[in-house]
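User: I'm writing a short report section on ligand binding and want a predicted complex to refer to. Could you take this sequence and thiamine diphosphate and write out the structure as tokens? A short remark afterwards would be nice.
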Amino acid sequence: MLEKINSSEDVKKLSTEEKKELAEDIRKYILEIVSENGGHLASNLGVVELTIAIHSIFNLSKDRVVWDVGHQTYVHKILTGRKEQMKTLRKLDGLAGFPKTNESDTDCFNTGHSSTSISAALGMARARDIEEKNNCVMAVIGDGALTGGMALEALNDAGYSQTRLTVILNDNEMSISKNIGGVSMLLSKLRTKKSYTKSSDTVKKHILKIPVIGKPFVRLVQKVKRSIKQLVIPKMFFEDIGFRYLGPVDGHNEEELERMLKITKELDGPVLLHVITKKGKGYKIAEENPDKFHATGPFNIETGESKKEKSKDYSKVFGDKLVKLAEKNNKIVAITASMKDGTGLAKFAKEYPNRFFDIGIAEQHALGLAAGMAKEGTIPVVPIYSSFYQRAYDQVIHDIAIQNLPVIMCVDRAGCVGADGETHQGLLDMAFFRLIPNLTIMAPKDFRELEEMLEFAINLKAPVAIRYPRGGEDKYRFENCEEIKKGKAEIVQEGKDLTIIAIGKTVARAMKVAEEIEKSEFKDKQLSVQVINARFLKPLDKETIKSSIIKTKNVITIEDGTIINGLATAIKELIIDEKLENINLKTYAYPDKFIEHGSVEELEKRYKLDEETIVKDFLEYISTKENKELTKNN
Ligand SMILES: Cc1ncc(C[n+]2csc(CCOP(=O)(O)OP(=O)(O)O)c2C)c(N)n1
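Assistant: Sure. The structure tokens for the complex follow:
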């Protein structure tokens, strides 16, 4: 069936039976692709019928669907002419794993971070009304994403404004792990109720026709109905804030879904359609382990086992060390915004359930909560992925840094993350955190240094951010790890011709670059290279760095972040502020642009951050006429 389908128009022509067949084909195809390329499996298998139904009922050349997070759009991509390109999913220059307006007009809005869809859809609906157009606008949002503040802010606005839009709530009871919180409790009550689709307006219209008693009677009936409904149908939350609630509907029953979507088309004002789906539907192994198959690397379809051996990563090192520190210090608490497993907190949650808080996909709240807890004497540790820290910027400034509260912000997935692409790259955190007064910013060169930094941070009694990358440590092995002292860099290798300053994972790269440059015998001379592990982006160890720069005159910076306001900027500022003269400086960082998806290695190569390119580029640079300092030094 899949072979016949290239667009929504082809889907519309199919019978219900044929759509069932199509759903099966799509599931098989997604399984094939994701087991090869990796990606978000379980969420996509859960929305196959829903996506087919949306394409059957709506015309996406004018109607708009905003997909929350956007990780569940593989089916949509398959149905909108990108079936073949799916083979390139998440690969460099291939299809993105999230909606991209530059891939297709039917991807009407880019997403990647959670809880944005209702705001964007409401914006589109308001623009439509101003333009006096008539198209439908929908947001498809998961029960996990509905726990995010931005989604609740948008519901509040949409319900009050009575703008015509549909929120399709895709409720599978799961965020990445089991969804928890008050919203999830509300939804679980709704789930068990009979489908509620009748419009109370119809009833109202009939009674209003009765002369004299009409209006007062309507009011009375409405009051009684409301209080009865409060008792028996807990859907009132949505209705009370101005939405028409429809559902719950079985999200794997194509006919039911289409029937309900048709109703939403006819209704005015904001509508919430509650759809119940199963994460991982159709692939038993994912149905049974939806959290594991939320996002996965390549795996064996028969067994579900990963094709790559799982090795130790920074998140695990962080989580294990935190458990050890928490044994000795009962003030330590851990907070996660729905990322217990991803951030390495599973063990902590098990060992210290009373000191562990999963607060939903709510990064702003996570940091506000941490601030309150820190004020009262606990030591909150908050691991959040770098790109999701963007959400909580004001909380870091307003709630934590201004009051100088000892919150430990662990910035996981910092730097280039690879296949998830531009919304998920952690390239901006050094830049945006460096602006914040009172904040100490560190990055470890390897696992051991992360452990040391975490211990140091816990004793610091001030706000601190520790950034570390996705995945494992570099193959390069450091023998030493000097004691961590606030604002002190570590000289990892002494030299006199060139200083390489690096931070975090790029210190290992600096060592390899140094080795290659020393081997290169530039102009028949052997160069000696000093390598500095900056450790602290803030406060920067100006003393150590300055004296090294004065000694060598030639300087390289390497960092896994944007060129603006990170390590390179800090060194430029130092050179200018300290009036250091005749310095040859080369900076290696990501350019001032949003970095696309691809493997980390490919992207590093593309942006000239790999070892080989840095060595070549630097040697070319110092060979030019203008840059003779190196030879002069020799
Ligand atoms: C701001 C933000 N925080 C965290 C994430 C990581 N994340 C991606 S999907 C997801 C769970 C989403 O659950 P839900 O909305 O119910 O969708 P489902 O996958 O269950 O269909 C999370 C926490 C994110 N994308 N954005």
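A remark for your report: The longest helix spans residues 16-37. The mean pLDDT is 93.
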